[in-house]
Design a protein that fits this description.
It is a single chain. This protein has a single domain, classed as Pnp Oxidase, Chain A (Roll). About 5% of the residues lie in helices and about 65% in strands. It has one helix and twelve strands. The strands form three sheets. Strands 1, 2, 3, 4, 7, 8, 9 and 12 form an eight-stranded antiparallel beta sheet that branches. It has a two-stranded antiparallel sheet with strand order 5-6. About 15% of the residues are buried.
């Protein structure tokens, strides 16, 4: 059974699924936080808790990066980067934000085998994300960060377009570096 010590997000990429998936770097990734929750209802009766019912699994990702990359924003919002006279422009606050596209993500985390200390990599695949962009730190003396906040939705295919045995939000794998 694989067990590792994991340390820091090393890379984040958008995934274009296919038999040979392609990966588009999200530059300057600083932080990634994946939250997974399940609603829980206690079944009460006879002045006791008789059971528990779990329902409505939910997952979300927050990905913060220090590079303001217009193509990253466009991928999340569904807007289009325009180039004219050496100036690149991206509209913000459009109607596309009300129905953003879905996208697939892959995160790479540095790791070491817990027993041997050998270098490993942890990959987190999120099959179907939908979200928004937040720009933070737009003030004197601070680095501007671009944060992707997205819901991770159930999906029936992985990054190689292979059908999953049951809908999933993603997977975690541990590989040799």
């Amino acid at each position: 059974m694989a067990a590792v010590f994991a340390f820091g997000v090393e890379d984040a990429s958008f995934v274009s699924p296919g038999t040979s998936p392609t990966y588009t770097d999200i530059p300057g990734v600083q932080e990634a936080e994946l939250k997974m929750e399940i609603e829980r209802v206690e079944l009460k009766g006879d002045d006791d808790i008789l059971g528990t019912f779990f329902h409505s699994p939910k997952a979300g990702i927050t990905l913060k990066n220090c590079v303001l990359d217009l193509q990253t924003i466009a991928t999340v919002t569904g807007d289009t980067v325009e180039s004219s006279g050496g100036v690149e422009k991206l509209p913000i606050g459009t109607q596309n934000a009300l129905n953003p596209p879905t996208f697939m993500l892959r995160l790479k985390v540095k790791a070491k085998d817990k027993d041997t200390g050998n270098q490993k990599s942890v990959y987190v695949y999120l099959y179907k994300c939908q979200g928004s962009i937040k720009l933070e730190g737009i003030k004197y003396g601070e680095n501007v960060t671009c944060t992707i906040e997205a819901d991770c939705l159930p999906h029936t295919k992985d990054e190689r377009n292979q059908t999953l045995s049951a809908p999933a939000r993603g997977r975690i794998e541990i590989a040799s570096s």
